[in-house]
Amino acid sequence: MARKKIALIGGGQIGGVLAQLAALRELGDVVLFDIVEGLPQGKCLDIAEASPIDGFDVELKGTNDYKDIAGSDVVIVTAGLPRKPGMSRDDLIEVNSKIIASVGEGIKQYAPNSFVIVISNPLDAMVTLLQRITGFPYNRVIGQAGVLDSARFEAFIAWELGVSVKDVTAMTLGGHGDDMVPLVRYASVKGIPVLELLERKYKDKAKAKEVMEAMVKRTRGAGGEVVALLKTGSAFYSPASAAISMAESILKDQKRVLPTCCFLQGEYGVKGYYVGVPAVLGSNGVENILEFALDAEEQAMMDKSVAAVKSLVDSLK
Ligand code: A3D
Questions:
Q1: What is the reported pTM?
Q2: Does residue 79 line the site of ligand 1, with CB under 6 A?
Q3: Which is the closest atom of ligand 1 to the Cα of 126?
Q4: Considering the domain 146-315 in this protein, what is its CATH number?
Q5: Are strands 5-9 and 29-33 parallel, antiparallel or unpaired?
């Protein structure tokens, strides 16, 4: 049986970590594509030379030619500029639209049966554009944002409560912008509501709420926090880990429930837009979108986030 094949379009900061993680987990053979000559070839050679140390048996190929992505099962797209301090994700729309348009053509021509995971920002608009250009069915074109936003929320909760990150479950919905919706009501440690644990820790309901609100605020601004520290680019380790978990769920038909930027056709009252929602990812890509009732406050936040996504996507030329 042939090995699976993963193509990574964009060999920059995230692309390099994606290649290494895909190899370490032996998800399949890896092709790293970039327009810069030598960059993907150098990164792949570097990672491959660690294979005897780490013990992974996969092939890594760096390329500047789309032909090499032929036969890919999953394609992960990070081509495009990242933010610099002071920039919003939306500021990238013009420059990254042009890049995504060319990437879409390459994928459509050479990997027409692949599942595509987009990471390039502004995420909700770039995944929309890539789907339009490839014309691939919606279940095969998704965006990564919610796995990372949720992981950040989970990390802050675990650090605040002094528990393992493995025992925290929390999720964000909506667009990948400052209006994202971290779901406080469903944040739990092994099913125990985080708010209750905070109330017991501080013996004060108002203080518990204040701490939770600070974690929500930090989650919404977490990408910007990293950008401000790095000064030359944006987060790249965690976005790579997030996309790899989505790719793995598809390649291994794990059917994990992951917050995914999916095309909605009436779910959550949204029609015709890509928005972050919990989805079952398996060998058919998006196999199911899980819906549940939001309370009035959550719905209002979701509406605001969806409105921001709509105005950004509607500005696409
Ligand atoms: P960076 O290190 O600049 O890598 C981008 C790569 O894209 C560079 O190597 C470029 O040469 C390459 N590139 C440019 N044009 C093309 C093209 N036409 N075809 C193929 N490759 C091209 O950036 P990065 O890896 O740090 O970030 C990549 C993208 O991910 C940016 O748009 C970020 O804003 C975005 N990002 C998204 C998240 C999410 O969670 C959604 C998180 C962090 C970054």
A1: 0.98
A2: yes
A3: 32
A4: 3.90.110.10
A5: parallel
